[in-house]
Amino acid sequence: MPVDHYENFPVASILMPRRLRKPVAAIYHFAREADDIADEGEASNEERLSKLEEFRAELARIAAQATPLTPLFQNLAAEIAQHELPMQPFYDLLDAFAQDVVQKRYADYDELLDYCRRSANPVGTLLLHLYEEATLVNLAYSDAICTALQLINFWQDVAKDDAIARIYLPLDEMEKFGVGENHITQKICDDAWRALMSFQVDRARSLMLQGAPLGSILTGRIGLEMRMIIQGGLRILAKIEAVDYDVFNKRPVLRPFDWVIMFSRSVPFNF
Fold first, then answer.
1. Per-residue model confidence as pLDDT tens digits over 37-55
2. Residue 75: which residues within 8 A CB-CB, separation 6 or more?
């Protein structure tokens, strides 16, 4: 489940086959560094975008089979070559990070889904290629899971995102439920807010369950890890409901006992 800076990335967990830990770590470091450029520190938007363009130039060197200039991308290039990873997911991630620099609001759900397509789904795509399981069916299930995880992270971190002036709730749905930006800035958890968040939680859960068959298609340790990831997302949604959607003052997180519950629900595969 979510760790460190890049929230949807299971980084070389104990369930990850040893042979895949190095490429997963290389991909994670790329994503983490790019994410930090977009989010961390006091740099101007222009400086952030310029640094992300430097990352894009390094990807272009890899695509041209030229030697990257930095160790991060030299390591990444070696893993891309060894595992025959596609380049597009890396470009998509950079596009999403650049979008975070300049876009702080989303007009509707479709616009948010398009962001998730580039900010979250590439992670699942790359992992499936590492697993040698990147069939069209599996990729579709993975997209559903990754988008759901991204949405769950948004609903978990409404207050955290507000601190950096971002709102990922679709503006048209906020208006429909009678929720204004003042609900977020002033941490107002009234009936309108609860109705909006209930709608978001239900939709994210449905999307997660839509992708859940991937957990039984994948076998062995990677299948168990996938089921744990799915259960972790569902567990966070349950915790959001348990605090009556007051994510402002009671941010839901996974505790040690939650991992016990997640494991029990992952062996056997059971939803």
1. 998 888 999 999 999 999 9
2. 26, 29
